[in-house]
Amino acid sequence: xxxxxxxxxxxxxxxxxxxxxxxxxxxxxxxxxxxxxxxxxxxxxxxxxxxxxxxxxxxxxxxxxxxxxxxxxxxxxxxxxxxxxxxxxxxxxxxxxxxxxxxxxxxxxxxxxxxxxxxxxxxxxxxxxxxxxxxxxxxxxxxxxxxxxxxxxxxxxxxxxxxxxxxxxxxxxxxxxxxxxxxxxxxxxxxxxxxxxxxxxxxxxxxxxxxxxxxx
Amino acid sequence: xxxxxxxxxxxxxxxxxxxxxxxxxxxxxxxxxxxxxxxxxxxxxxxxxxxxxxxxxxxxxxxxxxxxxxxxxxxxxxxxxxxxxxxxxxxxxxxxxxxxxxxxxxxxxxxxxxxxxxxxxxxxxxxxxxxxxxxxxxxxxxxxxxxxxxxxxxxxxxxxxxxxxxxxxxxxxxxxxxxxxxxxxxxxxxxxxxxxxxxxxxxxxxxxxxxxxxxxxxxxxxxxxx
Lengths: 216, 226
What we know:
Oligomer: heterodimer
Number of strands of chain B: 0
Low-confidence stretches of chain B: none
Shape of chain A: globular
Strand content of chain A: 25-35%
Strand content of chain B: under 5%
Radius of gyration of chain A: 17 Å
Structural class of chain B: mainly alpha
Order of helices and strands of chain B: HHHHHHHH
Number of helices of chain A: 6
Number of strands of chain A: 10
Order of helices and strands of chain A: EEEHEEHEHHHEHEEE
Mean pLDDT of chain B: 91
Distance between the termini of chain B: 23 Å
Shape of chain B: elongated
Strand order of the largest sheet of chain A: 6-7-8-3-9-10
Largest sheet of chain A: 6 strands, mixed
Mean pLDDT of chain A: 88
Largest sheet of chain B: none
């Protein structure tokens, strides 16, 4: 992960929702080793922008580039490098925590070993719950499970929608540490949060409002 | 990657085994209503057996579609799958799992219902007939096609509404050719005429669907999450 060729770029991005233009003609760059904080009131289009970056939303115009290749170009390998954590945790209630995590890492091509999962779970204090079904956990614990994916999957770009919400102080610190060490290793982090996060070094703030402005 | 996806679908299906059994019970119950409702006479039941079994199988497949697509859509897993795997593979893994846990059991259960419908009845008790085997063969070729076509309908309707009836209305017309040739196979067998042509057409429809529908369903899944 030490290589520096991780750059996400957006050129001329326009997205609309229900016939209404949400974001118009946006140019953004997210460089390797940086943490970017998307700011904007509810409905400003933060989630839509993230989903557009992740390739889930169809764009009205514009392109998303990963290392100067279009993100949907097969050689960009975008699906391999991207980890997108959305509001919904995308975990199956019928499966155990370990099974859920193993599936996602297996889909990346490298199935997480039990000891790896054990290790992350211990850091997040959910190690005793690994064999429980996801449905049996509390909301906060469920959120922690989805955060385990950050350490179990080898990726280069994290797009995180409100990752700090519902977390206790200890886990917030853990998550800040993860973001910073990931960025230090050349990763790109983009996240949203309504609160300021103490102790997290942010390299770029992107403010989304009806008149678009970007401050570095 | 396909193996990983398929394994997950099968694992989820195993955990939801009640949901898997319901369409199968539905199939058995619908068919077993006919002797009560119409007539218990063997000759008469044999005449309608082909249509009854096929219509029941078709409705049963429709009934089971929802669980393979809806929950992934609702809990966000579908987005994750589409980010990490190609849409075509996602669709194909769902179809394969869907057929293995609902289509295949229908085929295996059908001889019991054939017995109930006196499909093998022959006025001359000394003549053994193979109608049941022919029916199983027709279902074996027909049910995968129904799963494949259902995948498109289900994927298209995911975002549209929570109403499962929409899928039924969209997809049932597409099932008509399968129904026609499927029951024609059995009818041909009953009249002791050749049924290879009908079987071949069922097979051809299956191959055609196998090539095109995973792609179409994958695109539809992609549209559903956007």
